[in-house]
Amino acid sequence: MRRFSCRIYGVLRDGNRVLLARSRFGSRTFINFPGGGVEIEEAPGDALRREFVEETGLVIRPVRTLYANQEAHLSTQAPIQIVSVYWLVERVSGDLCMAGNGDDVLELFWRDLGNLPLQEMFPAEVEFATRLPALI
User: What is the pLDDT along the chain (136 residues), one digit of tens a residue?
Assistant: First the structure.
């Protein structure tokens, strides 16, 4: 039986750079924007704020929706279809923990919008990342 996984991610800017995470799922490492799964009965905005604190140490404010996946993305790691929504966010408070969260985020780093590591991203992230410069 296939299920859906609703994912929500935040795009934090610093000039022409965006914050990215090197993350781990099982034995695979990949690059993504900070964020993650929306829990049952959790509002998407609350999930975004929770995930951002868990992964970066920062309290953020969602500014506006940037993009929602338009393609069908089936996970290669589990029998689910992934639906991702991306928000532009602003930093409110907190200390950015570049060394990761000791769990699924291995490290955080800034990358120029024109040089995103697409080859290290999952397809849902690539769909968004290729459109990102035109969206912000």
Answer: 568 888 999 999 999 999 999 999 878 899 999 999 999 999 999 999 999 999 999 999 999 999 999 887 777 777 788 889 999 999 999 999 998 888 889 999 999 999 999 999 988 899 999 999 999 8
Angle at 15 between CA 91 and CA 109, to 5 degrees: 70
Facing residues of 22 across strands?
A: 31, 107
Q: List, in sequence order, every residue forming a beta bridge with 53; answer none if it has no partner.
A: none
Q: Hey, what CATH topology would domain 3-135 get?
A: Nucleoside Triphosphate Pyrophosphohydrolase (3.90.79)
The angle subtended at Cα 36 by Cα 33 and Cα 38, nearest 5°, is: 145
Instruction: Provide the whole-model pTM.
Output: 0.91
